[in-house]
């Protein structure tokens, strides 16, 4: 296999995205459907670079599917023999499945053959393998999973860590703040993203010792640190990056998911009760569907694993093809905006200042 | 002032509820409106004991209001000169406002004049003063705030701690589990409430060291411990009591509130968009209103402060009179069911077993 060229000429960088053919509940069909959508002309027009696509996984499974869709000449197939299951423990996947699609994909990114790996597979395994193979960036102790949360008036808030690190020191949290700020600068074009620390009140005396220490350290950085924020602020327009440890972040994310599901369930019950006439219910239901679409977690599918020496994006395991395309576009944007270099540079600057 | 009788005869316990006249955004008018609703015959019929009502606060403010409503002969007025503001720090309120309505109310409960204090005031101050004045029950190191969460099919889940203790040891969490289980037994009539530990995955290897240790300790108690639960499970029917530290619990609660507000905002936007005809929108809106009512946090207003040597219930600061009545009924039920004695007995049994 030849190494793809790193650039295709001055000003036109290649964006080489490798997708995991075996991650996700509906893989591999869902992944192939997504690739077809990505190959449509509209998709690559969003980015300044030229898009190159690859899929990593079992050749005997993926080759016929690529041919059947007529995209075998436009998508490189990178063979990997093992498949990591959603129930495999990260440590088992890490040590026993070294020829898995995730292992091979991460090595391809590490060795410069591809710019980014996108996978809808097992989160723990993806993080563990990526960390082992790619290592962290200089100045970053631990990578974090970042999650984009929809906010009012089409806004969005980046929360990190969303679950990779249950226990964090203040230094880890400060590093998350730097990475989150870089991410929102690079991908959303914000000049000085507002960084908040997730706490249980806005006053300085609130929270754990780690949180109080983190707050005083953040105040000394050149970040646009706005202080403590609360769970209610995640959906508002007053903060761009919310920093927390992975335990709290994961509980917050799953509570959001639970609340939304509970409210949708209750709403459906109201709409099918006898009081609302059928016509009204139908009309309301169409509004409900559009609303579901707006707040669909898949709308912002694609959680970047930040802090790695290479770009890795996690798609929701239950993603459909359209959502998986979102995850691919997150990866494309990171490559297009040189996110890895930017984070390295920012950490360097913070350390020096 | 004479001490009210502890019982009014065999089998008919008195339920003596003292409410804080100054807590909450709309106090004192909201509190007085609530008292009028509580005095209506339907309310006390829910309980086996006979209801006696008191209000604590500034005499010159509350006496005319009681008279104006014609309930001055049916509600005892307990004078207190200080008022704690929503922005007073707990330590300031604790040390500098010793004749506040909360201080006086807590002392009245401690000295046996009243059975329970209900306040919509400053949570931190209410907890700090209650802990100082009432002390904790034997075997309980720290009181916790418990919050009732609506679940599907009219179910409910008790989550604790909801914000009193940012940092907890495994022993604290086990004590929360015992208190929560007792509470659900006493007030919901459950035989063996299912207790879950809030974690970031259902597997035993997930979470912090404190969480893992807590899980192994819980498995050794006689509680009906079902293992790890996640944020999504709060709204389901598979768990009755969810245990977590106050930092995580508070973030979860505020994230719920934020999600619900964001979804309501988005839904409203959809319903007022041009696509839905006015008639449909109106019908859908009435469904939305009923839905809001169903998931209204006020529906379960009244967060018990568990583990104190006396009954204290916190109402939401933004409660209206109807919500405040819910908080009063939470207190009534705790008195009616001898919650404090039950918790003491359960802790005793757990220690001995």
UniProtKB/TrEMBL annotation, chains A, B:
Pfam families in UniProt: FA_synthesis
GO CC annotation terms, alphabetical: cytoplasm
One annotated GO molecular function: phosphate:acyl-[acyl carrier protein] acyltransferase activity
Gene3D superfamilies: Isopropylmalate Dehydrogenase
Location(s), subcellular: Cytoplasm
Pathway where it operates: Lipid metabolism; phospholipid metabolism
InterPro entries (UniProt xref): FA_synthesis (IPR003664), Phospholipid_synth_PlsX-like (IPR012281)
Catalytic activity from the UniProt record: a fatty acyl-[ACP] + phosphate = an acyl phosphate + holo-[ACP]
GO biological process: fatty acid biosynthetic process; phospholipid biosynthetic process
Keyword Lipid biosynthesis among UniProt keywords: yes
Alphabetical keyword list: Acyltransferase, Cytoplasm, Lipid biosynthesis, Lipid metabolism, Phospholipid biosynthesis, Phospholipid metabolism, Transferase
NCBIfam families: plsX
Function: Catalyzes the reversible formation of acyl-phosphate (acyl-PO(4)) from acyl-[acyl-carrier-protein] (acyl-ACP). This enzyme utilizes acyl-ACP as fatty acyl donor, but not acyl-CoA.
Quaternary data: Homodimer. Probably interacts with PlsY.
Family statement drawn from the similarity comment of this UniProt entry: Belongs to the PlsX family.
Designated name of the protein: Phosphate acyltransferase
Lineage of source species: Bacteria, Pseudomonadati, Pseudomonadota, Candidatius Mariprofundia, Mariprofundales
The encoding gene: plsX
């Amino acid at each position: 296999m030849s190494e793809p060229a790193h650039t295709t000429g001055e000003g036109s960088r290649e964006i080489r995205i490798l997708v995991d053919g075996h991650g996700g509940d509906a893989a591999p069909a869902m992944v192939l459907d997504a690739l077809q959508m990505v190959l449509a002309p509209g998709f690559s027009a969003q980015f300044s670079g030229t898009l190159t696509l690859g899929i990593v996984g079992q050749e005997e499974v993926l080759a016929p599917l690529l041919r059947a869709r007529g995209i075998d000449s436009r998508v490189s197939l990178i063979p990997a023999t093992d498949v990591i299951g959603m129930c495999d423990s990260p440590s088992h996947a890490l040590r026993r499945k070294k020829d898995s699609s995730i292992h091979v994909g991460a090595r391809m990114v590490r060795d410069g053959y591809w710019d980014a790996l996108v996978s809808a597979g097992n989160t723990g395994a993806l993080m563990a393998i990526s960390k082992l193979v790619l290592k962290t960036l200089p100045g970053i102790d631990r990578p974090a999973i970042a999650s984009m949360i929809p906010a009012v008036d089409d806004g969005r808030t980046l929360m990190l860590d969303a679950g990779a690190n249950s226990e964090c020191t203040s230094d880890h949290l400060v590093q998350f703040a730097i990475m989150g700020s870089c991410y929102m600068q690079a991908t959303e074009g914000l000049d000085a993203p507002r960084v908040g620390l997730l706490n249980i009140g806005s006053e300085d005396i609130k929270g754990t010792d780690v949180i109080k220490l983190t707050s005083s350290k953040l105040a000394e950085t050149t970040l646009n640190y706005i202080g403590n924020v609360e769970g209610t602020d995640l959906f508002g327009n007053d903060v761009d990056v919310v920093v927390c440890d992975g335990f709290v972040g994961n509980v917050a994310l799953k509570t959001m998911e639970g609340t939304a599901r509970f409210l949708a369930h209750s709403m459906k019950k109201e709409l099918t009760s006898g009081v609302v006439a059928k016509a009204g219910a139908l009309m309301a239901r169409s509004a409900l569907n559009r609303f579901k679409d707006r707040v669909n977690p898949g709308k912002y599918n694609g959680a970047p694993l930040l802090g790695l020496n290479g770009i890795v994006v996690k798609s929701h395991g239950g993603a459909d093809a359209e959502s998986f395309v979102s995850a691919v576009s997150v990866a494309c944007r990171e490559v297009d905006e040189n996110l890895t270099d930017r984070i390295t540079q920012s950490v360097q600057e913070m350390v020096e200042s």
